[in-house]
Amino acid sequence: MKPFSGLASALLLLVPIAAAAPDPAGAQATHAELGEAALAAGRWADAEMSFRRAIGEEGDSPGTRIGLARAVAGGGDPDRAVADLIQAAERWIRDGVYPDAEAVLEVAAEMRPDDPAVLLALGRSRVLDRMYLAAEEPLARLHDIGGASVDGLFYYSATLWENGRLSRAEAVAREALEASAGAFPARYQLGRLLLWQSRFDEAAELLGQCAEQAPDAVDVRLDLARALAGAGRPEAALAVYREAVEMAPEHSELRYGLAMALLETGDRTAAQAELATYRRLYESEQRRTLDQGLAKARIARGRELLRQGRPEEAIAHLRGLPESADGLAAIAAALRTVGDLEGAVDELGRAIALEPGRTDLRALLNETRLELLRKK
User: What's the confidence (pLDDT) of residue 36?
Assistant: First the structure.
């Protein structure tokens, strides 16, 4: 009797577990659950139909997009599956929802490990998500297979720079300069990299050319002034700082740089006045930084409007918020959606002025400037 009793007890213990298991064929099953069940059974057409219904009726998500892609690939069309994943990822990247983009692109990379479009999108999303170590692998792979476009070279160079591999970053930046026939974004990235390495004379030459190519770009003039100062040309640096301050009088770093240039040239009275202005602007920026945490949810609302296909409403909403780098980046994304690339460049430039160390914002600015050049 004891063996039978033990078996009976075990079966009784299993009853509630079985009862709790979801029944994909049951009335309560969601379309996504039905799709997963069909996938497991190899019923590709049924799975595809269920996942499409899930996206239409239950909302888009990485899980449903991945399920749909696996169904389409299982049905014999992996190219369409990957293309659909890239399309979904591009939408999430545009809207700033980088983890969702990365989730679907990682599956696309499993399906097509050497697809240049997949590798670029995955690396780009990780750079914009500030995951630089993770971004290096797909971008390096893209470069190694010879599939890197100018955009891919930009992102790869920025990633290598962020990861401290400066000589390699410079080599790739020079490739981008050659591949783009000397386009301004490539020249500027290389100039900034040389400035970072304190190679001031080389940097000043390139950045001077950039200032001629983009005379209204405040960020370029700031870097040019720094290069000139580092190269031992204080009078030239002072002239550039003065021009830049006229263009952006509320830019605190410009005010500080101008103060230092004035000291270097012996004008202590003017330098003290600029330092006082710098301190006022800096304190204002610090207060704004404290307020940014409160504004995050409101910025998220602006991005949600953009995801819903309401870019004009998103712009109006975001412009009503306290100025922040993330808010300006969201405005830039909305402006790109409605085709205002020049406006997007301006907003990203202002965002970088607030947070100069943001590689993700600089990558977006480079990308947008390149897109603008292609449109002209």
Answer: 95
Helix (H) or strand (E) holding 48: helix 44-53
Determine the length of the chain. Answer: 376
The DSSP-derived string for 176-226 is HHHHTTS-HHHHHHHHHHHHHTT-HHHHHHHHHHHHHH-TT-HHHHHHHHH
Task: Output the pLDDT for position 24.
Answer: 46
Query: Residue 25 gets which letter from DSSP?
Result: T
Residue 289 confidence (pLDDT)? 64
Q: Is 207 exposed, middle or buried (CB count within 10 Å of its CB: 0-12, 13-18, 19+)?
A: buried
Rounded to the nearest 10 degrees, how much is the dihedral formed by the CA atoms of 139, 140, 142, 146? Answer: 140
Q: Please state whether the predicted TM-score (pTM) of the whole model is above 0.85.
A: no
Cβ neighbours of 10 (radius 10 Å): 9
Q: Report the C-alpha gap between 91 and 112 in whole angstroms.
A: 20
Distance between CA atoms of 348 and 355, rounded to whole angstroms? 10
CB 111 within 8 A of CB 78: yes
Consecutive 10-residue runs of the chain (376 residues): their mean pLDDT?
38 35 57 94 96 91 96 96 96 90 97 96 95 96 92 95 96 96 94 97 97 92 96 96 94 94 94 94 76 72 87 92 89 94 94 88 92 84
The letter for the amino acid at 253 is E
Is the distance from CB of 301 to CB of 277 less than 8 angstroms?
no
- pLDDT (0 to 100) of residue 249: 92
Q: How many CA atoms lie within 13 A of 69 on its CB side?
A: 26
Scan for tokens 């099953």, then name that residue.
29
Q: Please, are residues 66 and 107 in contact by the beta-carbon 8 Å criterion? A: yes
